[in-house]
Amino acid sequence: MLNGTRRYMESTKIVIFKGKNIRKTIFRNEWWFSVVDVTEALTESADAGAYWRKLKQRLKEEGSEVVTFCHGLKLIAPDGKLRTTDCANTEGVFRIIQSIPSPKAEPFKRWLAKVGYERVQEIEDPELGAKRTRLLYKLKGYPEDWIEKRMRGIAIRDELTDEWKQRGAGERTDYEILTAEISKAAFGLTPAEYKKLKGLKRENLRDHMDDFELIFQC
What we know:
Blueprint: H1 2-12, E1 14-17, E2 20-27, E3 30-34, H2 35-43, H3 48-61, E4 70-76, E5 82-89, H4 90-97, H5 105-124, H6 127-139, H7 144-166, H8 172-187, H9 191-197, H10 211-216
Antiparallel strand pairs: 1-2, 2-3, 3-5, 4-5
Helix pairs in contact: 1-6, 1-7, 2-3
């Protein structure tokens, strides 16, 4: 169950900083954050993508090594699809923040340090991840019986992906294909089609399933 909770935390890929969505993913056993989302949170630019591209170009011209802290990782885009996005770990984001003049920099640094520290705590004591997941669902208003089913579903999902891994699944696309096959068998729809039917974009599909759906969707 505990490994499954960590998988859930990866799958959400969203944290909040003062009302702003910051996409994230786990890479090399630590959190990596979308640089564009960080830029938007700090600058409130109308086009954060353009702002980051211009800043990145300037940093490269100056010979700054900040850009080398970034990796192109796949995150859920607003259209619900996985797209390669510039991401940086906690150290990299701190370096990027230093290049962005913003009065919001200090609060963001404190928030980022807190998120990174919580991740370290979860690595050292995985039960904390499970407790935080339960608390998150509770704060969102989910009933206890739904939370219990969701947590069991996380554990089942973890066991299933471990089995797939033992049978040769290695790439992210392998797991996506297998998950899509389960979804089509259960509901006649792929996860992407099901999210569209429910009117979801970045949200986690399983968090918007009722008890019946959770039974058939691991």
